[in-house]
Amino acid sequence: MSHPVYCSVEQRTRAWLDSFVVGLNLCPFARPVIAADGLRLTVCKSGRLEDIAAMYLQELNLICQSPESEIATSLLVVPAGLEDFETYLDFVDNANHLLEDQNLDGTIQLASFHPQYQFDGESPEASSHFTNRSPYPMIHFLREDMMERLLHDFLNPEQIPQRNIETLDAIDPTELQRRLDNLA
Predict the structure, then answer these.
(1) pLDDT per residue as tens digits for the range 115-126
(2) H helical segments located in the chain
(3) Which residues 6+ apart lie within 8 Å of 87 measured at CB?
(4) Which of 41, 62, 109, 126 could, after both became Cys, cross-link 142 (CB 3.0–4.6 A)?
């Protein structure tokens, strides 16, 4: 992947973070982390599954070895190789098994985002899918202890998913897709 393309992927990802995640307040904890440069954003430059897996392991190791003050959370963006949603889900499933194998469940949690994200059992046209739709396939590495602290101090955290659905339901799905497609 050439340097201009790599920069464009990062730029579109940051635009998505600004307009969807922070702008629509889909994650009430994102704004301070992004503002304080606590988010590590890495773009995988290869579309080969072996390279993506190696990059995943590298990011996992880095967040585990780094203090929260340096890397609060990490986002691995994979613009090539995981475009097919089922392939992506298989990769994330394997990534979660690897967390368990390395006894990191309870330490690191993965959140998944994909341009075709669709929750099982929901209408394909449902706006709720946009809580996890992004311009590129992504894996978000979250520190569980940090999330526990944030959730402890947040009023009614169990209402976040429903509030997000209500926010997105207020916007036509066609408009949400247009916004996602036109990120610059």
Answers:
(1) 999 999 998 889
(2) 3-16, 30-35, 49-65, 85-101, 144-152, 160-169, 173-181
(3) none
(4) 109
Give the list of residues 6+ apart from residue 77 with CB closer than 8 angstroms, or none: 9, 10, 13, 41, 42, 43, 44, 136, 137, 138
| 162: DSSP letter | H
Place of tokens 């392991």: 57
The pTM of this model reads: 0.92
One-character DSSP codes across 62-93 = HHHHS-TTT-SEEEEE--SS--SHHHHHHHHH
Cα separations (Å) of 136 from 30, 51, 54, 143? Answer: 18, 17, 18, 22
User: What six digits make up the tokens of 15?
Assistant: 């635009």
Per-residue pLDDT tens for 50-89? 999 999 999 999 999 999 999 999 999 999 999 999 999 9
Residue 27, both tokens: 């994650």
Q: What domain range includes position 176?
A: 3-181
Q: For the chain, how many structural domains are there in total?
A: 1
